[in-house]
Amino acid sequence: MQKNLLRVKLNQLQCHFTWILQTENIDLDGMKQILHDSVKLDEKYQASSYNQLAFVNCLQGNCEEAIQNLKEAEKVLRENHEDEFDKRIIVTYGNYAWVYYHMGQLTDAQSYLDKLERICQQFPDASRYTAMIPEVYGEKGWSLLSPAAKYYQEAMKCFQRALEEDTDNVEWNFGFATALMRLEGYSGKPENGKFSELAMQLRRVLELDSGHTEAMVLLALKLQDLNENEEALRLVEQALQKSPDQLHVIRYAAKFYRRAGKVEKALELLGKGLEITPNSAFLHHQIGLCYKSKLIQLIKSDSKSSHNLKLQQKVSLINQCKHHFDEAFRLKRSFIMAKLAFAEICAIDKDHDKAGAIYKDLLNLEYITLENKQEIYLEAGKFEFHHKKSESNASKCYLEGFKIKHASKAREGCRYYLEKTAENRLCKNRRDIQAFCIRGIIHMVDGQECFEKVLEIELSNEE
User: Fold this and answer.
1) Tell me: the pLDDT tens digits for 425-442?
2) Cα separation, 401 vs 56, whole angstroms
3) Is the separation of the CB atoms in 258 and 221 below 8 Å?
């Protein structure tokens, strides 16, 4: 009876245990590795990382370790936010209460509820055990950016709520920019033009803190998308000069140089990053992409080198790609893009059986996000078209990816290749049945989604 009553109180808290309710599609081991790196290297967000580590450890049954994580978070908050400790500690105390509940130490869990009750009495609009203040909204925003893409929209709203009361807070402004960036990356519809909301938000961060080097490199990447390359390069160089050993700066600067075609510079930075965090799946994937760029360049080049030398270089680059993509997936089992990149290299290496088997195995994974499933269908379609020379099988893959109702870059890719296939077939034969079938399915899916949106609006109006 006492445990049930305590559970009712715990469900009223604002903390990780009430924010992230669906954990089946979350790669906890991969998340844990990222958080371990973060607490070592990112002092600014150490408390947030320790809180998230506590949540992950508790889910994995490591409750004693979770309590240690929370003690570290509390220590960081006391040292860095002494003047606003009560505002900052609300989420941590909520996590304490939940971990002790899972350990069966109900008295300890209740003691943290009592602490929260005393703190919340300071805030006029607070409920008994929590206060929805900017610090809580901000912490919630950061926590929702970690587990999966489906939480990004809510994370953005949290930062917006935090900024309503504290418009000049650098942390919440940067959090809002990060959420915008993540959403843009997954939506498949990046902003273009002069008035990019993401670019403006990153400029806002730099207006508040001109030395925010992570905002500099992220703005540089966005400006690179908008072909504003001179300013972008200037920002990257400035960020590297100010923070040459800051891992996030190194990572994003390397991505900038790779996309600019300066692959050797990118590899130099990524190698430096790997010395700092040797178990980073992100860095291994980026290194693999650099070697892939060199491989594609070699294949396309009219090199005057001997055939044997070119073959040796190709084999070496293929092996480098495979090694780093495979390592990225080994370190983070939810990193589907790394495994897809590995499959693409197998296809380039003419190992079609292995590439096909990878696509099939990935689609049979028990827990897989919708955007990952769309990515697999998209890449499998490209494989069928370019390597197996089967337009019909490619179209089947693209259709399966497009029919998954989830806005993503991969879904837009599936749509693009379907429309391109239909257009190409109609150029050859204006009465092509398959082309009209493809266009019909696209319109049918679009129409169904429009009707669903109308119904959603009608229902919300009735409420």
Assistant:
1) 999 999 888 888 888 888
2) 31
3) no
Examine the domain organization and report whether 343 and 430 are in the same domain.
Answer: no
Within a domain: 404: yes
DSSP 122: T
Q: How many CB atoms lie within 10 A of CB 416?
A: 14
Whole domain around residue 299: which residue ranges?
280-363
CB count in 10 Å sphere of residue 249: 22
Q: Which of 84, 116, 132 marks a domain boundary?
A: 132
User: Does residue 159 sit within a domain?
Assistant: no
Domains held by the chain: number: 4
DSSP 193: S
Question: Domain for residue 42, yes or no?
Answer: yes
What one-letter code names the amino acid at 178?
T
Supply the pTM of this predicted model.
Answer: 0.87
Which residue is associated with the tokens 């997936």? 329
Task: Clarify whether residues 376 and 306 are in a common domain.
Answer: no
- Tokens 């350990």 correspond to 103
Please write down the long-range contacts of 21-25, taking CB distance under 8 Å and 24 or more positions apart.
Answer: 23/59, 23/147, 24/367, 25/148, 25/334, 25/367, 25/368, 25/369
The string of pLDDT tens digits covering residues 253-294 is 999 999 999 999 999 999 999 999 898 999 999 999 999 999
